[in-house]
């Protein structure tokens, strides 16, 4: 049995990003007070972060259900997604409902900054989706506002999948990552015109 080397009486310090209702203005036990505190600017940036994340947990099933419905619609009817799926299959890959998954994605706190008035503001990192060669595509259900947002996100990640299959990407190489991000971002200017007609370099 491993020896316990912790000092008696030592206490764990609360994370600076943990929610303390008396300081943040967000109390999970008082929903109406939370709305009032937001409307009257009595909830801190950190409190609003926790309020949002807790609401995502409560709505997780609904968000994932909507995400899956929109995803399935895109695979059937979106010209962009159908075009990308066809090109991925030509490279012996396949993306479908089995490896394009809808999940709740918690935001990450990057840090807390103070403005010139001394008020703290939470810097967070959020994303709509991601691609992993081993996993497939993850769509962040709680971050997707509607079907159009999901379609754009799915198409963006499918470009990464195509690049991975076509160019044998080394994801540890930042130059490779930068190139595929540039390609995926360029899709926004092509969509609805050349890409649907097969006139791009894909």
Automatic annotation (TrEMBL):
Subcellular location: Mitochondrion inner membrane
GO biological process: mitochondrial protein processing; mitochondrial proton-transporting ATP synthase complex assembly
Recorded topology in the membrane: Peripheral membrane protein
GO cellular component: mitochondrial inner membrane
Principal subcellular localisation of the protein: mitochondrion
GO molecular function, one term: metal ion binding
Pfam families, per database record: Peptidase_M76 (PF09768)
Keywords, sorted A to Z: Hydrolase, Membrane, Metal-binding, Metalloprotease, Mitochondrion, Mitochondrion inner membrane, Protease
Region (Disordered) residue spans: 1-27
Biased composition (Polar residues): 7-22
EC number: 3.4.24.-
Function per UniProt: Has a dual role in the assembly of mitochondrial ATPase. Acts as a protease that removes N-terminal residues of mitochondrial ATPase CF(0) subunit 6 at the intermembrane space side. Also involved in the correct assembly of the membrane-embedded ATPase CF(0) particle, probably mediating association of subunit 6 with the subunit 9 ring.
Family: Belongs to the peptidase M76 family.
PANTHER family from the UniProt entry: MITOCHONDRIAL INNER MEMBRANE PROTEASE, MITOCHONDRIAL INNER MEMBRANE PROTEASE ATP23 HOMOLOG
Name by which UniProt lists this protein: Mitochondrial inner membrane protease ATP23
Naturally occurring in which organism (per UniProt): Hyphodiscus hymeniophilus
